[in-house]
Structures are given as structure tokens and as C-alpha cells.
Amino acid sequence: MKQDARKLEGEFDYIIVGAGTAGCVLANRLTEDADVSVLLLEAGGRDNYHWIHVPVGYLYCIGNPRTDWLYKTQSEPGLDGRSLSYPRGRVLGGCSSINGMIYMRGQREDYDDWARITGDRDWSWDSVLPVFKRSEDHHGGPNEWHGAGGEWRVEKQRLKWKVLETFAQAAQESGLPATDDFNRGDNTGVGYFDVNQRSGIRWNASKAFLRPAMKRPNLTIITGAHTQRLMMEGKRCVGVEYRGGDTDYLAKSRCEVIVSAGAVNSPQLLELSGIGNGARLQSLGIDVVQDVQGVGENLQDHLQLRMAYKVHGVQTLNTLSAHWWGKAWIGLQYMLMRRGPMSMAPSQLGAFAKSDPDDSTITRPDVEYHVQPLSLDRFGEPLHSFNAFTASVCPLRPTSRGSVHIASPDARDAPLIAPNYLSTDRDREVAVNALRLTRRIVSAPALAKYSPEEILPGPAFQTHAELAVAAGKVGTTIFHPVGTCRMGTDNDPAAVVDGRLRVIGVSGLRVVDASVMPTITSGNTNSPTLMIAERASEMIRADRPFLFSLAPVSGLSG
């Protein structure tokens, strides 16, 4: 494309690509300095779709082109050759507008590992805990573990289910302690998840961080802006090219471009711009700007193994929502009190445990449960006609590694997503043990009064080999992809960014989102992503005097 065919949008101190969780935080923090101008680009639209804000509305946002990129994985050998839907937020707020709303930090050791990998103690648990607290508005008020008065609202869920209470009792009978807080660095135990809601309404990053910043004249937000590539002058990033409607635009950056497009779209954009595995890029006809072997590699995700049980003598959502009067009651509860099933996060009860309690080499929980008072064959299909609950168990620290890579030089083409689930012996072993652990909990005395009958994967799977097959049949993503632009040291050949999230070998460019995680956190990944953006904003603001001292951008090369 000729440069004169592109319209110049303007010149800004910072350009942020992607208005997801990280992008919203960055836009807020960077514009706190009135003398700094920021452009925020979002490929999706505004978050004014009503189903974004009703918690149960995630059912209508996932798989909806208004709010979801509609990605799919490649055929997965470890999952019986299936291709999975791979939801990613395409709207202001990004995945925080369509996710499960669960507030989860992970475990102390997750962040201490990051500090070791990067050689930067500022990524350790003791260093990031104050960062989590700073933006938090916790329902319990400020204490050693939580903050209050911040932008990120954390509340208790507004409903209880008898079948979930009983599952919690069964988990305790199986050796798990009860807990009222999964966010103190050791999330061992069983209890209800805290959620990012305010009075029964989803609290996404757009509401929390972007709306306050919208009042500032130094922030420009453009929706419907699909970034095509980064603009480079030698090894320096000086702007972006994006498409809005039928027009191609250029925007210049005086200081930095910050890519916050997520674990799928961030490596895609780097590769489209000539930053990635040189041989791969050359094979697609893309000029190599910087050979960074790790771009798009190191994909990690949590695989959920769904086990469902038919129960008797207790009501679940399956039958409550089956009749007109049940649906009317559900709607009335939400309309009048913002309570009931419409206020539900996708998962209500959680548990963290060791997949094999008898294995002394497992020193901390390595599986997470998401327990729901419902069952269905697969996401998006009708609920079963009988009462049942689902206990999805997720191995927390997979050793399998996948990839995200572009399929062509055209930004409109979806990237190739290959999570590579269950590709290691260790991951298959943990999966088998996790299924066995679920059966152990369900067979505890507390649940006996409901006569649970396993319907998924089913009692036919008993031996180690059979359970490994079952894991491949029932396993599916729980939507936590990370790691595709992982951070590390300058001499780490697998690293894409350094400990300050600067792209190695390129100036004027950072990546700030879940893609920079070197290893996945032991739990849901949205709030850790928010913390990363908080830390990044501190780094960016600290580096500003040096960046402002550089010569201004004189032009853009195409």
C-alpha cells in the first residue's frame, strides 16, 4: 500500500493498541499526566450492549461477532482431534466484558517464578501484592491482603445453591479446608469465588478505568479501528497503521507504542510487522525487522475437564429454568434485587487442591474446580432436562506448550491457534488424577443423599488409559491463554520482552497484556493481567523523561 493512500490521524505521545483489560488500565494511568497525549485503538465497538452488563449475559456475548473475535483452534490431537471455539473479547473492556468475572490473583509461587525468570524482584509476590491492592475496591475493606477505594470492584456473589453447599461439604470431608478468600497467596480450600461485580452488575475494565479517563481531553479513543501493522523506522517503532471502515490511517507516536491486544492478537501484530521468527516471516513474504524467535510460542492455557452428575432430591438450574414460572421468578429476582441466577458468574463455587493428595512432590494446589448447579452437553447447548451439577477441574500449571502464528500477511486473516493440550506425559497424568479426585469428592458422605450419577464422562472410563482418553474427550478451554510474548532476560532466546516489557531489540515498543506471562498463573488470569498493566504504567511513566529527550518523529516509512 502506498503511503499517500493512508490518512494521517495525528501524532500522540503514546498509542495503545487494544482496549481490553490492560489497555483500559494504561489509558487511565497514562492520561493522569495532563501534558501527555494518548491514542487508544480498539477493533471492536463500545460496551453498550446490554448483555455485557447482566452477569449471565456472557452466554450471549461469547460467539457473538459484536463482542467476540470468533477464533477457533487448529485440530487438537490431545483432544480427540477436535477444534475448539476460542473466545476473545472484541469490544471496549476486551475479555473483561465477556469473561466469568472471577477475581483471582494466583499463588505466591507464580510470581516468585516470574521474578526468577526475569531476574527482576519487582515481579515477586511481595512486590506485586501492593499493586493488586492499589487498584482494588474489596467488599471487606482494607486489610493485610486487600485494598479499598480503588477502581476494581470485588464483591461476594449474590446467591447460594444447596447442591453447591453440599459439594463444599463433600470437599471438606475429602480433606480440603473451607476458605472465604482465595487471594492471600495460598488458595488451598473450597468456597465461593469473589467476583468483579457492582450490586449484581458486571464490573468490566471499561467501566472501572476507561470511563473516568474519557473525561480527560488528552485521551483519544477510536473504536472500529483494526490495527494492521506497526510502523517502523529501522529498529524503532514510530506509529501504527490501522483500518477504520474503508479507510486506512496512520498514527504517529512520539514516545512509545504499547501493544495490549492479548495473547492471540499481540503476537499476530508483531509478526505482521516483521517482528518474529525470521524464517517464518520470510516464508510469508514479510520483511524481517527483528528476528525474535519466541513471538507466538509458549502458549499456555487452562484446560477444563468437565464432569457432570445427575442428582435427585435437590433442585438445580436445569429444572428451575425449564418452566415459565421458573424463568419469571429468575427475571423478577434480578429486576427487583439484582440477585438470583441472572446475577450468576459462570462458576460460583471454587476449590483448589492437589491432584494427587498422596504425592509428596506436589507442594501446592495444582488443580482448580469451577462447580456449577447445571449441566449441558457442551457450551451453547440447552441445559439437560434433569437436575444435575457440573464440576470442571482445571490442571493449573500445564507443561504442554502451544503457539499462535499468522497464516498470511493479511491482518484480516485469523491466526493459527494451536494450544497443544495434553501433549506431555505429565499433563496427562495430572488430568487422570484430577478426574479421580473429582470422583473421590463426589463419593464423600455429604453428597450421598442426592445419589449422584456420573453422566460425563461416564462410569465406563475406569483405568488409567481409559481416563486419559476421557480427558481428551471432555477437555475444553476455560479461556485463559497467556505467554505468547513472554518476558525474560535480554539473553534468553525464548523471551520477547524484557522485565520492563520492552520488545527485545526494538525501541519505542512494549507489549502489556497476558501474553507477557512467562508461566501461567494458578487460577483465573484477568486480574493478573490488570496487575501487569498497573506495573507497566509505572515503568512507562518512569521512563518518560528519557523518551521525551529523544528526537521527535520526523516521518513514517511504509
From TrEMBL:
Key words of the record: FAD, Flavoprotein, Oxidoreductase
Annotated TM spans: none
Start and end residues of each Glucose-methanol-choline oxidoreductase N-terminal domain: 262-276
A GO term for molecular function: choline dehydrogenase activity
Cofactor(s) essential for the protein: FAD
EC number: 1.1.99.1
Entry similarity comment: Belongs to the GMC oxidoreductase family.
Name by which UniProt lists this protein: Choline dehydrogenase
